[in-house]
Amino acid sequence: MANIKSAKKRVLIAEANRQRNVAFKSSIKTAIKKTLELAGGKDKEALNTSLSKVYQLCDKAVVKGILHKNTAARKKSRLALAIKKLTEK
User: Fold this and answer.
1) Share above pLDDT 90 across residues of the chain, in percent, rounded to a whole number
2) At what angle do helices 44-64 and 5-39 cross, to 10 degrees?
3) Taking residues 57-71, what's their average pLDDT?
4) What is the structure's pLDDT at 88?
5) How many CB atoms lie within 10 A of CB 80?
6) Can you spell out the DSSP letters for 9-75?
7) Residue 89 pLDDT greater than 70, yes or no
8) How many other C-beta atoms lie within 10 A of the C-beta of residue 50?
9) Residue 2 pLDDT > 90, yes or no?
């Protein structure tokens, strides 16, 4: 543990940021799972809305520095491929 007061503050801030980032990443994973569930169904409008929400969350994570831009692009691409496979059946 740090001895300097400002270093102690930075440790607390870093932990708060880490928890916020973990929560945001978790919300992306949850949205992806919900989108994949909708892909198996017949409701195309709900699927498109959900897909748009996932894309929005990924882009927002890039802007906030939570995800790298290539990571977000990979998540979006893999989700699109998975939806395409599920809807073709």
Assistant:
1) 88
2) 160
3) 97
4) 81
5) 13
6) HHHHHHHHHHHHHHHHHHHHHHHHHHHHHHHTSS-HHHHHHHHHHHHHHHHHHHHHTSS-HHHHHHH
7) no
8) 20
9) no
Tokens of 12: 């607390």
Rg (CA), the chain: 17
In terms of Cα–Cα distance, which of 4, 24, 73 is closest to 81? 73
Whether 11 and 2 have beta carbons less than 8 Å apart is answered as yes
Cβ-contact 50, 38 below 8 angstroms: yes
Domains of the chain: 5-88 (1.20.58.110)
Distance CA 79, CA 84 (A): 9
Which pLDDT does position 42 carry in this prediction? 85
The angle subtended at Cα 40 by Cα 36 and Cα 45, nearest 5°, is 80
